[in-house]
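User: Structure please.
Assistant: Input sequence and predicted structure:
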Amino acid sequence: MERPTPNLDESSAATAGSLKPALVVPMWSTVLVAFVACLILATVPLCGGRLSALRNVELRARWLPVSALGAQVLIITVMPGALPGVHAPVHLATYALVALFLWCNRRLPGLWLVAVGAAANLAAIVANGGVMPASADALAAAGMPATLAGEYANSAVVQAPRLAFLGDVFAIPENWPFTNVFSVGDLLIAAGFAVSVHVLCASRCARAFARPARAA
């Protein structure tokens, strides 16, 4: 996911060229993630589930995702231009922390789908040298054409991207709230979170999915 940046004037846009790394600020992406999470949680009582049931869920190794987010904030927001050559390995390491967290909590419903989404994102990042490939069309739709030279971008338009279909190829339009770009992996992560909370909260949606499984 990526943070929207101010539109370039015509002269700046002309010099941007075919390679346009665009800075992603985790704080902005975190706002979007929080918004999506709140929307998903809001569907639980609408489907007859009990959000209070989440108080009984014991998450193991909670420090892992917190550390991963902190590391991303550090390399992308605090020190985007410092320590060249360190940012990409650290970015990949944050996914290792998330993978360990998912493994520690693998018995929770829906986390397997979250893991598939995270693996899709990681595959795209590894295939492109530590950067998530972003679609130029998606960036344009989200109003994110800015170039920031000399700073690390964890999601960018790259030349000859590998596994481009797993990159940030979807966009929230520029004139919508929380404009951003996102990937297939992000959609799977959101779907996995939705499955998890609905099952844990025993909503009608979860029970509806459970009936065909029992019948089989």
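Helices lie at 10-15, 26-46, 63-78, 87-104, 111-127, 136-141, 184-200, 204-215.
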